[in-house]
Design brief:
The chain has 463 residues and is α/β, with parallel strands linked by helices. The chain has two domains: 357 residues, Glycosidases (TIM Barrel, Alpha-Beta Barrel), CATH 3.20.20; 97 residues, Sandwich (Immunoglobulin-like). Helices cover 27% and strands 19% of the residues. The chain has eleven helices and 15 strands. Helix 6 packs across helix 11 and helix 8 runs parallel beside helix 9. The longest helix is centred in the middle third of the chain and has 21 residues. The chain is elongated. It binds alpha-D-glucopyranose. Alpha-D-glucopyranose binds next to loops.
């Protein structure tokens, strides 16, 4: 409840006026590709997945009240931190198959993936040169597996299937000796470094260099990467107390022209699109955006998670797309590396829906009034086609007519075509110009939503 209220407050106040548009033509082209793709599969996988607890955050004493709930109560904070950081010694997702993950993404209609290369706990799922805290180090049992470089094997499988690839990377690294003293043991940890950066700039400089090296390593060795998705919004700015991301991204673009960067919620030139988290903005935004939203209740795998229904997911996607955004739908793989069954079935339902109605989703742009009652609107990028998506409510089965409101600005409605079947759907225009769509007997509506192409004629006679 509180979370919802907070999200609503935040939604209303999402201020994008400081958004800095990148004028580089290669970046602009990448933004267009990003906007066309519409739907990305986000995945949080890491040490936390093994035990089914909140990702990384239980390491922070200041955040323990919400994040450490699933942890044994009689464990002291220090004992817990040690046990958590030791999870690299048991991380062994023996049933991880990169092609299964990538196939599930394709099957679900996703056009790109966003994968946790490193979360705040610092454990790297790739063969970084800059720390031994990684899947490929001998300390981790999974290192003996040929798929131990999870990022490489997964990204390769994705690109082989035409999926875009975004690297989630945490700016904070709670395992690094130049972030927290002694891995936070004996320290009352907060999300920030355990020391005053200003009083020890050389130490922070080491952390800056480490971050730069790791990011360039990903871009140079795991590419082409479409976007660096930089989480950890509390580390910001430019200059000695920052991570100098402007320079890092400029350097990375020498390897990958047009690379996007999402330094979350900073409104700097390293935030090529904005990333509302766990909510959809109330209205279309004037800047490129992507809502990241969990399919279940958590980012990482939880044993007893609750999953959104296929209807909720389809409606969520339509809401996002009608407002001109992208949806990053998050799934947390299981400790053994497989995707949870409830997630797979939902992704399949989404993929089935997109196969039939995806023309009204992919590559579209905002079509005012974007929503009206049970209808949402989109248009093709070239503005030649307009789509109306009817969001069926649960139990709507008996409705053979639907009021199609809010389209008078589009001109006079001439024809309605059901995208899934190509059938022309009759309608009547009432005296007050409202349109009633009349589904013919035998029309088999979709369980969640149906998309239609709306052919209209402007008063001038042109379409
Ligand atoms: C939140 C969580 C973080 C997660 C992120 C994904 O910020 O705290 O752990 O990775 O959402 O957007």
């Amino acid at each position: 409840m509180i979370a919802l209220a907070f999200a609503a407050l935040f939604a209303a106040s999402l201020d994008v006026s400081h958004y800095v548009e990148n004028k580089d033509p290669a970046v602009k082209a990448s933004i267009e590709t990003f906007r066309d793709r519409k739907i990305g599969l986000m995945m949080h996988f890491g040490l936390y997945s093994q035990v089914g607890i909140v990702e990384s955050w239980p390491l922070v004493d200041e955040d323990a009240h919400w994040s450490r709930r699933e942890v044994e109560r009689d464990l002291s904070s220090d004992a817990f931190k040690k046990a958590y950081f030791d999870l690299n010694r048991s991380f062994n997702p023996v049933r991880y198959r990169p092609e299964d993950w990538a196939d599930a993404a394709v099957r679900g209609g996703f056009k790109y993936v966003i994968f946790t290369t490193k979360h705040h706990d610092g454990f790297c799922l790739y063969d970084t040169k800059y720390t031994d805290y990684k899947t490929t180090a001998p300390s981790c049992p999974y290192s003996a597996n040929p798929r131990a470089d999870i990022v490489k094997t997964f990204f390769d499988a994705c690109r082989a299937r035409g999926l875009g690839v975004t690297a989630y990377f945490s700016k904070a690294d709670w395992h690094h000796p130049d972030y927290w003293d002694n891995c936070g043991v004996g320290v009352r940890t907060t999300r920030n470094p355990s020391y005053d950066i200003e009083k020890d700039l050389p130490r922070w400089k080491r952390f800056q260099d480490f971050t730069r090296n790791q990011l360039l390593e990903l871009v140079r060795g795991y590419g082409p990467i479409d976007c660096l998705w930089l989480d950890g919004c509390w580390i910001y700015g430019e200059g000695p107390k920052s991570l100098n991301l402007h320079d890092v991204v400029a350097e990375a673009r020498k390897t990958t022209p047009g690379l996007l960067a999402v330094d979350r919620w900073q409104c700097t030139d390293c935030e090529d699109y904005v990333t509302p988290e766990q909510y959809v903005p109330d209205e279309p935004l004037t800047v490129p955006w992507e809502s990241c939203i969990t399919l279940a209740d958590n980012w990482g795998y939880h044993y007893d998670d609750g999953y959104k229904s296929p209807r909720q997911i389809v409606h969520l996607l339509v809401d996002v797309v009608a407002k001109g955004g992208n949806l990053a739908l998050n799934v947390g793989p299981m400790p053994d590396g497989r995707l949870p069954h409830p997630a797979v079935t939902r992704l399949e339902a989404l993929g089935d829906w997109l196969k039939k109605h995806g023309t009204a989703i992919y590559g579209t742009r905002v079509q005012p009034p974007h929503k009206s009652g049970v209808w949402a609107f989109t248009r093709s990028k070239d503005a030649k086609r307009v789509f109306g998506i009817l969001l069926w409510k649960d139990g709507d089965r008996e409705h053979h007519t639907q009021l199609l409101g809010g389209i008078s600005s589009l001109g006079t409605l001439k024809k309605i075509v059901h995208l899934a079947t190509g059938a022309t759907i009759p309608f009547t225009v009432r005296a007050d110009k409202s349109v009633v769509v009349e589904f013919p007997a035998g029309f088999r509506r979709d369980a969640y939503a149906d998309a239609f192409e709306l052919f209209t004629e402007k008063e001038t006679g042109a379409k």
